[in-house]
Write a structure and sequence with these properties.
Distance between the termini: 106 Å
Strand order of the largest sheet: 1-3-4-7-6
Strand content: 15-25%
Transmembrane segments: 21-43
Radius of gyration: 38 Å
Number of strands: 7
Helix content: 25-40%
Order of helices and strands: HEEHEEHEEEH
Largest sheet: 5 strands, antiparallel
Keywords: Membrane, Transmembrane, Transmembrane helix
């Protein structure tokens, strides 16, 4: 015990320092600092993500089954009607491929005509699409209309209840018509079927 100072009682001894606890705390602080520095370095040096090419998918919303065709010809005028027939007479195509597909959704079955027309160039292809997009200008005859597909109960797909869509790419024009069997109706769904079927035109290039 330390001697008392002058005029007072002896002072209490200071408690010993817990060096082990201090060492643990210091080690923890160092570890946190190291981890923080490592995370900061990783953030600063993280490589840029590699861009992925936006390629069109061959899959779509509906599943289609080929039931007729493809039929290929170079005489578009003989396979068309209305103003579209006259257009082909004045401006012959270089290739025409036609096919029929079926698809089912929500208990309804649809028959779908897919046509791929190859014109001499982009200008005449655009002119053809502009013409067929209008009402009352005729079209390329589908395989039901020209009597090729004779399956019983096949719906007419070139009337007012049919859905239509088209697409032009370079010198190629894809034209789709779709209609439900058994006089069923659901125009929004039928229009989605027609739009989805445009991708099938790629199979008609073969």
């Amino acid at each position: 015990m330390r001697p008392a100072g002058p005029g007072g009682p002896p002072s209490a001894p200071k408690p010993p320092r817990d060096t082990k606890a201090l060492a643990l705390k210091g080690g923890a602080l160092v570890a946190i600092a190291v981890v923080s520095a490592l995370l900061w370095w990783l953030i600063r040096h993280e490589p840029e993500p590699t861009p992925v090419a936006d390629t069109p998918s061959k899959s779509g919303q509906f599943q289609f089954t080929l039931v007729e065709g493809p039929q290929v010809t170079t005489d578009c005028a003989s396979k068309a009607y209305g103003d579209t027939k006259k257009f082909f007479t004045d401006t012959p195509c270089t290739r025409l491929s036609r096919a029929l597909y079926t698809t089912e959704t929500g208990g309804k079955k649809a028959l779908v005509s897919v046509v791929l027309v190859t014109m001499p160039g982009e200008v005449t292809a655009t002119q053809l699409k502009t013409l067929t997009d209008k009402d009352g200008t005729g079209n390329v005859s589908d395989l039901v209309r020209d009597g090729t597909f004779k399956a019983q109960g096949a719906p007419k797909i070139s009337g007012q209840d049919a859905a239509y869509d088209s697409h032009v790419s370079g010198a190629e024009v894809a034209i789709v018509l779709a209609g439900f069997y058994d006089k069923q109706k659901d125009k929004p769904v039928l229009e989605r079927i027609a739009t989805d079927a445009l991708r099938l035109s790629g199979d008609l290039r073969r």
